[in-house]
Request: fold
Amino acid sequence: ELHHAQAELVRSEKFSTLGKVSGGIVHEIRNPLGAISLNAELLREDVADRPEAASSVDKIHRAAERLDRIVGDVLSFARDTRVQAHPTSAREILALAIDDCEALLEKESVSARLDIDGECLLAADTALVAQAVSNLVRNAVEAMRGAPVREIVLSAREAKLRTADGSRRGFVVLAVEDAGPGIPAEARERIFNPFFTTREEGTGLGLAIVHRIVDAHGGMTACGESTRELGGRRGARLELSLPLEPTRIAPADGVSLGEAVRRRIGGGSHSNMHATAG
Reply:
């Protein structure tokens, strides 16, 4: 556990440096890329009456669009993640992520259910963490294409985890589990690394962005085999561990994050929350 926490700290420092370098390079790429796209559009009009030439121009334009998407992903990874932390709950975060992926889940005929153990109140940037969970959900949906069972479980629990300095702190552990083929053991240590992907297409930055969001909260990421059987198989399980009271984030509204969460608990705004059936 301590080894994992220390490895996460080293990874975070490397990612921070890589993000700064990548950001500078990408800004230099974006200007000539924009010129390529613009001139391809102009050229398309000139060769509209020549099918072969028009086809070549279309290929140039599609390639430029793909590069622009890659540039956008790199910029998202390189961007300094600013966290606006407020009292929130795992239920609020997970529900927002499911809403964000609703169209994809319906299109792919994938069912999603919640399994929340306790109140799981914390201080975090709800929108950012929901974005991270959404990325995990989208990855899970892609992994299950062709699988006999198409179900994911989004769960949350509180846990005392060891941090890089050897101490134990309270965390809320958010997890997404699927019924796909799982992640090969040799890929698990690298799955959150930028530009690493097990798919034929993709930039390999989706999970790296997830790591950046979690790291900005002072949290940790992990992946492994699912802890539950879905349709008789154990797929992948990806975890985002977020501290109950992050130490890296400036307090919101002049109130300490711990005090804000305690007030919310004391106010009973979540007294009706309970764990759903697993």
The beta strands are 86-89, 111-116, 121-124, 151-162, 168-178, 220-225, 236-243. The radius of gyration is 21 Å. Residues 85 and 124 are 4 Å apart (CA to CA).
